[in-house]
Predict the 3D structure of the following.
Amino acid sequence: MENKIKVGILGATGSVGQKFIELLKNHPWFEIAELGASERSAGKKYSDATNWIMKTPLQKNVADLIVKECLPNFESKLIFSGLDSSVAEQIETDFANAGYFVISNSRNHRFDKDVPLLIPEVNADHLELLNAQPYKGGIVTNPNCSTIGMVLALKPLHDAFKIKKINVVTMQALSGGGYPGVPSMDIIDNVIPFISGEEEKMETEPLKILGKLDNGEIIFENNIKISAQCNRVAVIDGHLETVQVEFETKPTKDEIIAAWENFKGLPQELKLPFAPIKPVHYFSQNNLPQPKLQRDIENGMAASVGRLREDSLFHYKFVVLSHNTVRGAAGGTILNAELLKAKGFLDKILWAEKV
Amino acid sequence: MENKIKVGILGATGSVGQKFIELLKNHPWFEIAELGASERSAGKKYSDATNWIMKTPLQKNVADLIVKECLPNFESKLIFSGLDSSVAEQIETDFANAGYFVISNSRNHRFDKDVPLLIPEVNADHLELLNAQPYKGGIVTNPNCSTIGMVLALKPLHDAFKIKKINVVTMQALSGGGYPGVPSMDIIDNVIPFISGEEEKMETEPLKILGKLDNGEIIFENNIKISAQCNRVAVIDGHLETVQVEFETKPTKDEIIAAWENFKGLPQELKLPFAPIKPVHYFSQNNLPQPKLQRDIENGMAASVGRLREDSLFHYKFVVLSHNTVRGAAGGTILNAELLKAKGFLDKILWAEKV
Amino acid sequence: MENKIKVGILGATGSVGQKFIELLKNHPWFEIAELGASERSAGKKYSDATNWIMKTPLQKNVADLIVKECLPNFESKLIFSGLDSSVAEQIETDFANAGYFVISNSRNHRFDKDVPLLIPEVNADHLELLNAQPYKGGIVTNPNCSTIGMVLALKPLHDAFKIKKINVVTMQALSGGGYPGVPSMDIIDNVIPFISGEEEKMETEPLKILGKLDNGEIIFENNIKISAQCNRVAVIDGHLETVQVEFETKPTKDEIIAAWENFKGLPQELKLPFAPIKPVHYFSQNNLPQPKLQRDIENGMAASVGRLREDSLFHYKFVVLSHNTVRGAAGGTILNAELLKAKGFLDKILWAEKV
Amino acid sequence: MENKIKVGILGATGSVGQKFIELLKNHPWFEIAELGASERSAGKKYSDATNWIMKTPLQKNVADLIVKECLPNFESKLIFSGLDSSVAEQIETDFANAGYFVISNSRNHRFDKDVPLLIPEVNADHLELLNAQPYKGGIVTNPNCSTIGMVLALKPLHDAFKIKKINVVTMQALSGGGYPGVPSMDIIDNVIPFISGEEEKMETEPLKILGKLDNGEIIFENNIKISAQCNRVAVIDGHLETVQVEFETKPTKDEIIAAWENFKGLPQELKLPFAPIKPVHYFSQNNLPQPKLQRDIENGMAASVGRLREDSLFHYKFVVLSHNTVRGAAGGTILNAELLKAKGFLDKILWAEKV
């Protein structure tokens, strides 16, 4: 236990913060040492400060931690941030300036020029941006929950066949809206065809993620045109998305399936603890994937694809599913931290810690 | 009462048949006189033969009718068919040959050369096809429940701006799958990204409906390219669809809204009993229409549209909603019958009746 | 229109307030003239101040009303209160003191000695309490939404066979919790076996409602012992309750059914506009009543009962259902007002109005 | 692997059969060797014969088994039966007569004089009945899914304080109705206050389970009076039940909690693989247990209790929850088999197997 890296969690009482805590239980490398939340919670025992909504019980050692304010006076140098976007920008900047490494799930720094918008299987090379960061520490972000699954499915196709157009319509889970989130009276026996800000994220984030490094900068993949339409459905976990795609050269169906089946990235090579064995699982049955049946595949860290078929307006259409609070949020952030650790990016802060 | 037209209902014990019965209660022109169902039900009182699943109570006079077999020996000359597609083809043909006028909700005859695939606001002129039918009676069909709402919304746009491409993704209600339909364990906390045969219907039916009469034949509107993706969601009634559309000339947003607002067809002019005052209702709020909130507009006979916005891959995207068992099935069929009556197409059979 | 009684609604932006507005549309006697809400809303147009969550559209003339603060300076002398219990006590008292007649859905004054806890079919004679009220105006309350349906079903049995014990377990709808109320993530695929304060209300309110007037005071029916257990289920509208009951003398099953079938009260005699024709509907099918199928019976103003059978621990057990936001809240309150009007209790304030 | 006991599963394609298969994956003692189902499925590969509805993927080695007819020609001597009650009676008798040991989840033999109705923590001594069975093999049954959780919670109370009356109202999960079971249109936004045969089971099974052995016979615990009311709610897994109980001597609340906390049975002593560490978990929070939050406690093998409070009609009331397809069906049956194995009851058939 003593050899684990101590981590702090910002926004610890929120739903993303709770998911960090749930997923980090028994993590082989990381150990929760400090929790930060709003002034209102600071000074309380965590179990008193939070309304625990995870399904697995809160681990005793975390329950007893006294919540701190989100000020850069943590002992842990590695910080997971699940802060609300209304406060994340400044707090994360403050921590990074003070020498902390902030691995964030918040959207605020995603488009900072020198901040990687990271999916480890997709653009691990973007970590090079860190060298350009002005911070004593650093900031790494992960994409929006509805972006991650889609980009995991599209990355191997883009590498092989060059994507020109992406059209996506989502049916998104309730847990993506935080807690308390959508009132039950609004969504039982209903669909809400609008999620604030979501379409804009899906139409821009992939361009940065799939961008190329050039002289220490990301050149956005602006050759790809994206249109997104986002809907909220009565599903607890798991974003399902219908995707249509057009390539520079149209591949065969078998070539696409092969690209998915063979897709692997650095997390798989490095056998990172949270890495799925296969980032993308292809299903040939005509009614899969479904949120309830496939969202927990590989502990929620893999995307599932299916219903691949030719399309009359684009080249192909298919369905992709991924677990929005695991791969799409806390789990994805943890994988980001694992990659940073494995690639040595945490050495400067960890070295500091050990002295 | 005596002056009402007596009607028979085929497939009376199924969910579409029940909806016919519910909607025809107090109809000013039509009166249910005979019910047909499978051999298993024939000979029983209707209330004993059916598992009534409508929300409003079964009217007494219909409850007491003795169910008949679906043989062309009905006294009523006007027949509503909610028959299952496994048996509809032959039975409807037999009735039409025997001099009955069959207004059908089944898919079997939809693409017969001389059978109108009718949405009264859209292609009332297609009734001319009836003159070419070889039957002593006649057959008129209505489109699939997921097609009707979309085409109502697209018709005024096509008339004004000429549509070239339609891309649609549906989130369809459970009642569209008949009864018992989707098991609860399969759909609570879930989405099923597949409905057998549905995408094909949506990709072909609009081409006939929007087709032009030429020398007594329909020239399909094959200049329009359509792609459809169909999903089942945990909604009781109301199909919600995201639609993207490209025109020959791109109109302004205001022009589109005006086209919707001003859209009227023959049913409105003729003030048919089941005609909505406005076939299409436009909502400017960014989270409407929603199944639970708008499906019952104009007694379920109007389509609702909203979220109209420019699109990066097509010209515009928007959302359309319509009630799948009312406008999309039994109610639409009744409106078809009303149009036939108002235009005099039932005269030959009604004249026979009166002799 | 001019001859209608002008009414004000307190708590107009909340879910009960909205239901008042929805139900009073086209009311033959009452006309909404003023709306009161919190300071935050006061001064705004109602349509801007409220997040309208009813299914039917907000009537134009109400949408345009300017919201007032809940101060006793209304012109309308008849006041419907849907105020939150955190503020209802004082505001309602202030209005009553100032000469207004407050018909309230809030719980605060329910157990005031001189305030009727009114179900018009059950204890219309309790209106006599009004004579003892110290107010220039008056206050009348209605019971909790889970109490009303049960007492409607029990009143005719108590009259005929004298009830000794009531055991009730509820499965209550989400709309009973107000808006936004229960988060969707908490209730989809779940039951919550707790509703704060609800069991206490069900165990005490019937004792007052079924109490007898004696010298201008209510003698509580303390011979009845009640135990209640309350659960929240994933139903939008309609509280379903399993009830067990023991009598002084055990009646036959047929006697109980007859008591229900023949039950009528003053609202039925007086043919009040919101009175159901039959306050209690008995169903003999073994799987009825169900919230989705029976909640809207008699426009939501009647209770439905079924599954009557002998019990090994009490005399009988049965199931009762009633619509919690109609009969159990706004609709019940409106019926209370109608009774007051019909019995002349509003004359003093209405006379004042007309001068 | 070779040392594991080979087992056959009857009714392998049904929902209980599938749950057996899912739960037996990696079982330390048992290995699935044969699958039996109806004639229609016999001869097919299991993966072709079944519509797999479990959430975890079907293990390869089982998928490839060829389904047999349910005739007593299996090689495996230990048989798990998930047969439908319409066929279970004869088939199970035939297998037992032919020397097989049938551990059944079906209701048919539950009240046979010489057949244990077994909950291992509650009445392990009832296994003595097996000595009186006329079969070359044997039959052991487990109680109905709604009975098991309640009896687990009541057993320690009965031992300590002697129960006289039990009143129970259930809110039962959809998976208890098999597959396809309840249609989604019937249960979304609804409760169904009826489950055929369920109340009778709950009112009689506990009397046998809690009965005493006397001269090789079970003397039913007829001093306990039970009343049950059963409802179906929109929950996937987990039966929630409100229970009221009266004792010979009324204990304190603390005594009841202590009885639950200290409750252990033979499975815990023997550390059987499927035994929960604690059969009953008590929750002091006022809104627990809830199906979604506690059903998976101890892998679904423990009951959860909460909301213990004094009652005005009985001594106490509380809420109990248990996983209906795990503890309440397949998992309970497996625990029964483990107990039989551990107590040596399988020796005669296993010895035969090894010769």
User: Anything to note?
Assistant: Residues 145-323 of chain A form a domain with the Dihydrodipicolinate Reductase; domain 2 fold (CATH 3.30.360.10). Chain A touches chain C through 16 residues (CB under 8 Å). Chain A has two domains: 5-143+330-349, 145-323.
